[in-house]
Amino acid sequence: MSGLLAAYRRTGADPPYTDPARNHGAAMEGYYWRLVHPEAGWVIVWLCGVCQGYGGSWATVALAAHPGGFLRHGTVAPAAGDFERFGARAGDVFRGSVHELRVRMGDDAWVDARLRPGVTWPRQALGGLGPAQLVPGLAQYWHPVLLAAEIEGEACIGGRRLRLEGAHAYVEKNWGPGFAGCWWWGEADVFPDPDLGVAFAGGRLPMLGVSAAPTAVVVRLGERVLRLVPPLARAQARFDAQSWHVQVRSPRYRLELEGETAGETAHRLPVPDVWERRVEMRSQQVLAGRLRLRVDRGRHMLIDAVSPLAGLELGEPSRERGSPPPDARPP
């Protein structure tokens, strides 16, 4: 049975009551940390895409920050995800879990953070995608791992030292046979109510010749987690380079997300091409956008709040194979 389960998980799927945050053995396993200091107004993002392709394991890594537009990225080998719990390593550049984030991409670009988890994904039958996590072979899977955490430690961004006390963290995972062709994503937890947070992810999904666009939304209300996902919730998504608009309806809730860049320039972040062993700069992520969240239950408004430090992302379709990764700077 363990061999059958391992084969099933390599397709990206997970049975009920298991941990989707563990390594699946898929071709690409993505790990993401977002650190935000509400008072100081800075944001630090770390991503690591662990890939299993021809020639062994490797990882796309990137460290980005706001304000200032800082970005450092490259590729590292070897790299591996943890099969027992959420966590990954990439050479001597990175080690991370729900309890720590240790990054070193040079003397002027590093993070040494210790996380104190506050709200992790609740022990439910299904993860962030709901019933979709049972389906093998999807183009991409997504799961919020740590919805709220306090941080201590220090970071250096372009030579500028930052104390991390007073900041908080959000951590998530995505995985699949490669990276999605076109996607949208967002996360915000700097609201007037510190117990409020929201994350969403969606993408184009060809099905029977028709391009569907499923979107999953997770809302944190203190220690309670509200999940709105297909097929129990129907979503509509509209977006362009400046704005994101998601509407979701379920039998009990109506949710609306309105995001905008708020004049901020998006970071162009690397995305791995697993089989070509290269990266493409086709993620446009705004680290400090504006996001309005509204949630109604029947005729009663539960939430109407705005976050000024939201992460908002659009993924561009892949370019033709064979083009070299632009501006890849090794750590």
Structure in words:
With 331 residues, this protein is mainly β. The protein has one domain (2-315). Helices cover 3% and strands 59% of the residues. Strands 1, 2, 3, 4, 5, 6, 7, 8, 9, 10, 11 and 12 form a twelve-stranded antiparallel sheet that branches.
* Mean of residue pLDDT values: 92
Number of domains: 1
Structural class: mainly beta
What is the count of β-strands? 24
Q: Which runs of at least 5 residues are low in confidence (pLDDT < 50)?
A: 321-331
What's the Cα radius of gyration? 19 Å
Topology diagram in text:
Blueprint: H1 2-10, E1 28-37, E2 42-53, E3 56-66, E4 70-76, E5 79-81, E6 87-90, E7 94-97, E8 100-104, E9 109-120, E10 141-157, E11 160-163, E12 168-176, E13 183-188, E14 196-203, E15 205-207, E16 210-212, E17 215-221, E18 224-228, E19 234-239, E20 243-249, E21 253-260, E22 267-273, E23 278-297, E24 300-315
Antiparallel strand pairs: 1-2, 1-12, 2-3, 3-4, 5-6, 6-7, 7-8, 8-9, 9-10, 10-11, 10-12, 13-14, 13-24, 14-17, 15-16, 17-18, 19-20, 20-21, 21-23, 22-23, 23-24
Can you give keywords for this protein?
single chain, 331 residues, mainly beta, twelve-stranded antiparallel β-sheet, ten-stranded antiparallel β-sheet, 24 strands, 3% helix, globular, disordered C terminus
Summary, kept brief:
The chain is mainly β and 331 residues long. The chain has one domain (2-315). Helices cover 3% and strands 59% of the residues.
